[in-house]
């Protein structure tokens, strides 16, 4: 089955995910749905992305509310997207109760 992954920054763009997956020969169809979260802020990461942009990064922020995107990645897509984020990011589990 598919795995829900909170998408932050350019990974919330269907075109960006299609580009990343297409380069690897992996199916590019990814269901994406908006979600409303509490307690999570988005800021700048302390690095410059490979393409030369300042990357986004999530952080805990009490009282913050925002709409983000959940990408539903299949078993081939999940490790492929993870690999595009190293060494600056790593996927971690989030408690739905903590951010609902």
Describe the structure in your own words.
It is a single chain. The model has no long low-confidence stretch (mean pLDDT 90). With 100 residues, the protein is α+β, with helices and mostly antiparallel strands. It has helices at residues 14-23, 77-85, 96-99; strands at 3-7, 32-48, 54-73. It is 23% helix and 42% strand. It has one domain. A hairpin with a 5-residue loop joins strand 2 and strand 3 (54-73). The protein has a three-stranded antiparallel β-sheet, with no helix packed on it. It contains three helices and three strands; from the N terminus they run βαββαα. The protein is globular.
Protein topology:
Layout: E1 3-7, H1 14-23, E2 32-48, E3 54-73, H2 77-85, H3 96-99
Antiparallel strand pairs: 1-3, 2-3
Which ranges are low-confidence, i.e. pLDDT below 50, for 5 or more consecutive residues?
none
Largest sheet: 3 strands, antiparallel
Total E-strand runs: 3
Question: What is the number of independent domains?
Answer: 1
Question: What would you call the structural class?
Answer: alpha+beta
- Beta-strand residue percentage: 35-45%
Head-to-tail CA distance between termini: 23 Å
- Global outline: globular
State the helix count. 3
Strand order of the largest sheet: 1-3-2
């Amino acid at each position: 089955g598919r795995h829900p992954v909170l998408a932050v920054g350019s990974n919330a763009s269907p075109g960006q995910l299609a580009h990343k997956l297409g380069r690897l020969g992996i199916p590019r169809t990814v269901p994406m749905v908006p979600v409303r979260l509490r307690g999570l802020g988005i800021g700048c990461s302390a690095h410059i992305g490979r393409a030369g942009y300042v990357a986004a990064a999530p952080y805990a922020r009490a009282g913050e509310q925002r709409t983000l995107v959940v990408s539903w990645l299949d078993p081939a897509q999940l490790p492929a997207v993870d690999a595009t984020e190293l060494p600056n990011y790593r996927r971690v589990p989030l408690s739905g109760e903590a951010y609902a």
